[in-house]
């Protein structure tokens, strides 16, 4: 609301001096062009200027208020005052220049005080940490100086008032004399100036008094904060002294204690370390034990205590990922059976030199909000996106990246113990997320019928094939067979929602893994991925949820928990914990680590019932051997930050190869143009391919309609290399490999492939 105008005069009643907390009086306020200026009662108090029609209205009806802390004060002429704050403007008028000056002085002082109060409140809301110079003696000395200076100012004010009164008397006498008209006007003007001088000096003294009050208040607050910090320091010193005494007594007790084998039936759950044992008397399982205090219904661990040697090893390879294990760590799993470690899993060197770099990512700017604001709540696969949001890989290639650590499955295939095998399968399921920590870009949505093969038979003994078997909803089928004793297959449907601040990606579908020699058949599902700061801030990705891995032959299970990131949590970021149990629910291994760095396993030696948890549930305390490394993430290639943070495997996925199917993702033109840095051409090509796919779908819909009208059966789209079958384990109907692809590759016959590019 803006109220403008010019105007008239006002009368003022007696009011406190401008330096006081409250100032009242009559002013004329501009209302509109019909009524002009209207007489209103104004009250200035606590940094707020309010007005009423009459003084009686102060008890019940306020007509308007303006906050002086954010207001601008201006004077248009001798009697006008203009106040503006935000979209509100008051045009006020006083009767004389003296009256106007009184109000302006009062308003300026009230504004300054309101700003100070606002700043003081802001300071009080934070942690009060007085500096080392603000001690008590210095504060009190400063206050004494301020009091002395205020006394001097008061003396000067008395003198000014005395001489000002004498000056006004003299001027009044001069006005009484018979002087020319012009001289009388000048004397009157001098008299008004003298009055203004006296008012200003009084206001200055009042402002100084307010400053002293504020300084005293601030001093008391600093003194309280200083006293609190002194008490805290004393308390910390006493606590540290007590801890030092306890440490010394424990150290003496440890030196004096006889060294004997620990064979007590129940182990302590909160001790500082495990009892030391003789190597001659202790078994391998009794060395370097740990205690995991776990919730019964959750694999999240609360406390961990270990012997000194174990703590030393864990400090070198802790869950923070600050330092990585060496390659030899893969063969240091003492609790694994020898059959799991007889081959490193990478004994054959690659026969072909793969590429180690791609062109650097161009630096193109893009208004993200202009595109995203119309996409909230929509299915991500149905949103037309420019390649600026993509990385030069398709979803089929991202799915193939799960095989980055295929050697875990090679190693698991050689395990005689199904429980040890389960630990390696769990590590493999976690390792598939390690490449996502910096990969916030979106892969290309595959076209219907698009395929991707990864033939590493000569190098690593496996062959992988993916095909986009459905477009709405988008679904991809994946099949991998390895000469080293395992087969993996899955059908993944991606459900994704854009929520404004973050993007949720929910993979639907089960992953199957079967080992040829033992027949062990494992099934699990993926967790939810969340991309944060979609609109504002730096993008980052998190994984959260639970994974249950089931061995359908033995009914053994592994429960994995991916802890979501929390700013207030003290846990290691990206933490993963798990428990491997047999068919009877008896826990045998504890798994711990992070999904972006490594996973460790520890064999459970003994379990006992502990105290009640925060929710009243009884906890189980696990005593374990020292943890052993299962999986460690490979370091990213040099210059990876400029190559979409691709891993060594990801850099090779889109490398051109001879003999692949005509529908292979490597032959997709928009993806190839993006990889080469030609993004404008890639955007145009992407639109062409999507329109071609839509036209093909319209054609199929028309054929289905014609068949329905003619009473004929219509099969619809049929995938080329996969067909739907009911899974005997999960009972779900999904796509499985029906064969023929690798035979067609050997024959170099791709005549059956549709034209999708």
Automatic annotation (TrEMBL):
<dbReference type="GO" id="GO:0006869">
    <property type="term" value="P:lipid transport"/>
</dbReference>
<feature type="compositionally biased region" description="Polar residues">
    <location>
        <begin position="316"/>
        <end position="330"/>
    </location>
</feature>
<feature type="compositionally biased region" description="Low complexity">
    <location>
        <begin position="259"/>
        <end position="271"/>
    </location>
</feature>
<feature type="region of interest" description="Disordered">
    <location>
        <begin position="251"/>
        <end position="348"/>
    </location>
</feature>
<dbReference type="Pfam" id="PF01237">
    <property type="entry name" value="Oxysterol_BP"/>
</dbReference>
<keyword id="KW-0813">Transport</keyword>
<dbReference type="Pfam" id="PF00169">
    <property type="entry name" value="PH"/>
</dbReference>
<dbReference type="GO" id="GO:0005829">
    <property type="term" value="C:cytosol"/>
</dbReference>
<dbReference type="InterPro" id="IPR000648">
    <property type="entry name" value="Oxysterol-bd"/>
</dbReference>
<dbReference type="InterPro" id="IPR011993">
    <property type="entry name" value="PH-like_dom_sf"/>
</dbReference>
<dbReference type="InterPro" id="IPR018494">
    <property type="entry name" value="Oxysterol-bd_CS"/>
</dbReference>
<dbReference type="InterPro" id="IPR037239">
    <property type="entry name" value="OSBP_sf"/>
</dbReference>
<keyword id="KW-0445">Lipid transport</keyword>
<keyword id="KW-0597">Phosphoprotein</keyword>
<protein>
    <recommendedName>
        <fullName>Oxysterol-binding protein</fullName>
    </recommendedName>
</protein>
<feature type="compositionally biased region" description="Basic and acidic residues">
    <location>
        <begin position="684"/>
        <end position="694"/>
    </location>
</feature>
<dbReference type="GO" id="GO:0005886">
    <property type="term" value="C:plasma membrane"/>
</dbReference>
<feature type="region of interest" description="Disordered">
    <location>
        <begin position="684"/>
        <end position="709"/>
    </location>
</feature>
<dbReference type="GO" id="GO:0015485">
    <property type="term" value="F:cholesterol binding"/>
</dbReference>
<dbReference type="InterPro" id="IPR001849">
    <property type="entry name" value="PH_domain"/>
</dbReference>
<comment type="similarity">
    <text>Belongs to the OSBP family.</text>
</comment>
<feature type="region of interest" description="Disordered">
    <location>
        <begin position="118"/>
        <end position="138"/>
    </location>
</feature>
<dbReference type="GO" id="GO:0097038">
    <property type="term" value="C:perinuclear endoplasmic reticulum"/>
</dbReference>
<keyword id="KW-0472">Membrane</keyword>
<feature type="domain" description="PH">
    <location>
        <begin position="20"/>
        <end position="112"/>
    </location>
</feature>
<feature type="compositionally biased region" description="Acidic residues">
    <location>
        <begin position="282"/>
        <end position="296"/>
    </location>
</feature>
<feature type="compositionally biased region" description="Acidic residues">
    <location>
        <begin position="121"/>
        <end position="130"/>
    </location>
</feature>
<keyword id="KW-0446">Lipid-binding</keyword>
């Amino acid at each position: 609301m803006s109220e403008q105008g010019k105007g008239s005069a006002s009368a003022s009643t007696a009011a406190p001096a401008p330096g006081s907390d409250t100032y009242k009086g009559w002013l004329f306020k501009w209302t509109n062009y019909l009524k002009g200026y209207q007489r209103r009662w104004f009250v200035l108090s606590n940094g707020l200027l309010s007005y009423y029609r009459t003084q009686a209205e102060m008890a019940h009806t306020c007509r308007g208020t303006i906050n002086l802390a954010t207001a601008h004060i201006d004077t248009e002429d001798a009697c006008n005052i203009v106040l503006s704050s935000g979209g509100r403007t008051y045009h006020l008028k006083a009767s004389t220049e003296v009256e106007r000056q009184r109000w302006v002085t009062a308003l300026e002082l009230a504004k300054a005080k309101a700003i100070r109060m606002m700043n003081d409140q802001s300071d009080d809301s934070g942690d009060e940490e007085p500096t080392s110079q603000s001690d008590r003696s210095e504060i009190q000395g400063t206050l004494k100086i301020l009091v002395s200076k205020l006394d001097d100012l008061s003396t000067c004010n008395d003198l000014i008032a005395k001489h000002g009164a004498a000056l006004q008397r003299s001027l009044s006498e001069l006005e009484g004399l018979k002087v020319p008209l012009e001289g009388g006007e000048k004397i009157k003007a001098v008299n008004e100036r003298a009055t203004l001088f006296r008012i200003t000096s009084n206001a200055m003294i009042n402002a100084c008094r307010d400053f002293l009050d504020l300084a005293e208040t601030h001093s008391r607050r600093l003194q309280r904060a200083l006293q609190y910090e002194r008490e805290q320091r004393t308390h910390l010193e006493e606590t540290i002294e007590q801890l030092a005494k306890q440490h010394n007594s424990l150290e003496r007790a440890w030196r004096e204690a006889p060294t004997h084998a620990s064979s007590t039936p129940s182990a302590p759950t909160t001790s500082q370390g495990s009892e030391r044992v003789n190597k001659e008397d202790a078994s391998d399982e009794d060395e370097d034990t740990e205690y995991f205090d776990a919730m019964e219904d959750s694999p999240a661990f609360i406390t961990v205590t270990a012997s000194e040697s174990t703590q030393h090893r864990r400090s070198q390879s802790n869950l923070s990922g600050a330092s990585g294990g060496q390659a030899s760590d893969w063969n240091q799993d003492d609790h694994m059976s020898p059959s799991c470690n007889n081959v490193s899993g990478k004994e054959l060197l690659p026969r072909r030199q793969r590429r180690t770099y791609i062109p650097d990512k161009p630096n193109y700017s893009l208004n993200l909000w202009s595109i995203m604001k119309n996409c909230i709540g929509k299915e991500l696969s149905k949103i037309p996106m420019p390649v600026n949001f993509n990385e030069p890989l398709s979803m089929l290639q991202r799915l193939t990246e799960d095989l980055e650590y295929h050697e875990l499955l090679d190693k698991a295939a050689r395990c005689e113990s199904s429980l040890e095998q389960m630990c390696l399968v769990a590590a493999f399921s976690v390792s598939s997320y390690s490449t996502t920590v910096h990969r916030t870009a979106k892969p290309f949505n595959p076209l219907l019928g698009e395929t991707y093969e990864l033939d590493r038979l000569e190098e690593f003994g496996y062959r992988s094939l993916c095909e986009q078997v459905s477009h709405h909803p988008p679904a991809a089928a994946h099949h991998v067979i390895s000469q080293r004793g395992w087969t993996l297959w899955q059908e993944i449907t991606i459900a994704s929602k854009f929520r404004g601040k973050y993007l949720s990606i929910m993979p639907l579908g089960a992953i199957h893994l079967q080992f040829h020699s033992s027949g062990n058949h494992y099934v699990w599902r993926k967790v939810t991925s969340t991309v944060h700061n979609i609109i504002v801030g730096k993008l980052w990705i998190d994984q959260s949820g639970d994974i249950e891995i089931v061995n359908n032959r033995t009914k053994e299970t592994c429960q994995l928990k991916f802890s979501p990131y929390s700013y207030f949590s003290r846990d290691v970021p990206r933490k993963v914990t798990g428990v491997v149990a047999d068919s009877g629910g008896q826990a045998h291994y504890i798994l711990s680590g992070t999904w972006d760095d490594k996973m460790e396993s520890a064999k459970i030696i003994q379990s006992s019932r502990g105290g009640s948890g925060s929710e009243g549930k009884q906890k189980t305390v696990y005593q374990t051997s020292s943890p052993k490394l299962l999986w460690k993430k490979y370091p990213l290639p040099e210059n990876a930050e400029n190559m979409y943070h691709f891993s060594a495997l990801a850099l090779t996925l889109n490398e051109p190869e001879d003999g692949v199917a005509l529908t292979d993702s490597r032959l997709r033109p928009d993806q190839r143009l993006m990889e080469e840095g030609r993004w404008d051409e890639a955007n145009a090509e992407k639109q062409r391919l999507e329109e071609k796919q839509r036209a093909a779908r319209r054609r199929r819909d028309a054929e289905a309609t014609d068949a329905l009208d003619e009473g004929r059966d219509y099969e619809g789209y049929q995938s080329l290399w996969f067909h739907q079958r009911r899974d005997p384990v999960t009972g779900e109907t999904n796509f499985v490999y029906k064969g023929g692809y690798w035979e067609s590759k050997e024959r170099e016959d791709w005549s059956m492939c549709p034209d999708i590019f």
